[in-house]
């Protein structure tokens, strides 16, 4: 019987370290590369992370790099600050949304969908509360304005917040809020709506590219490209190629554990087992030799047990 203990395969995504990979690949190739070695292509959920990403790209490179965003198949509502609409508070006017646009205004306290290219007043928020901006901008420009000068366009989670915003509004004006509809998805399916598009992006016309690159020159703004384009990319997550040493206790009747061919077949067996558990990707197993060049060490004269160590890398 073979007992394999203590294989530690966890990877923490909490701090989400980013890794700049300075090799040109298509988006799907870059995705596989990141999934094999880290967690996935980079996801980004705030301006702080946009800045972290810009900073890890080599100073000498001023082109665009792949991130994990790709055109999806389904349109979903999300908030400009990155939140999804799981809280399920909506305050649509009756008959709304009626499909005439991908951005949302509040008007007399209730919401209407509207083409994002219309120019309207808008509300920004920051810690101290909501600020009405009496300058007309389209939704994307309003978003940039709020992000640069305050925090973002507002997210409305409940009727209390909806009322607070409604109180500062001027009647008879449509006012942009942070709700929008889009069909872009992160590679790791993390349902996250933070977007940082460059001016004019994403393009409404079809065929303009289904994969997203971050421009290092344009303060980390995003644009669509053909997924076949070869460019450097950013992965996130911990490195998966950690070395793991596992101590095994084997018993063997009428055989010699230090027989190299037996050792090879045991390794093969472990490797197959790991694969069947979906664990072994790009990893190599090898025996670790002891100082006396032997892999196994006899535990006791009376028992046929041996110790050995096996190196996983
Ligand atoms: C908003 O206006 C800017 C120019 O100020 C333009 O580049 C951008 O495409 C417009 N966005 C939309 C959604 O109309
Ligand atoms: C931030 O506010 C200033 C002053 O109103 C304005 O000139 C600037 O364009 C704003 N930023 C953006 C990105 O709109
Ligand atoms: C919304 O986001 C939360 C936390 O960010 C996540 O747990 C949840 O699965 C997401 N909901 C959907 C519908 O994707």
TrEMBL record:
Entry coiled-coil feature ranges: none
Alphabetized PANTHER family for the sequence: C-TYPE LECTIN DOMAIN FAMILY 20 MEMBER A-RELATED, C-TYPE LECTIN DOMAIN FAMILY 4 MEMBER K-LIKE-RELATED
Signal sequence annotation: 1-15
SUPFAM superfamilies the UniProt entry points to: C-type lectin-like (SSF56436)
Keywords: Signal
Domain spans labelled C-type lectin: 18-125, 125-236
Organism: Cyprinus carpio (Common carp)
Highest taxon, organism lineage: Eukaryota
Pfam families in UniProt: Lectin_C
Protein's name according to its UniProt entry: C-type lectin domain-containing protein
Gene3D superfamilies attached to this UniProt entry: Mannose-Binding Protein A, subunit A
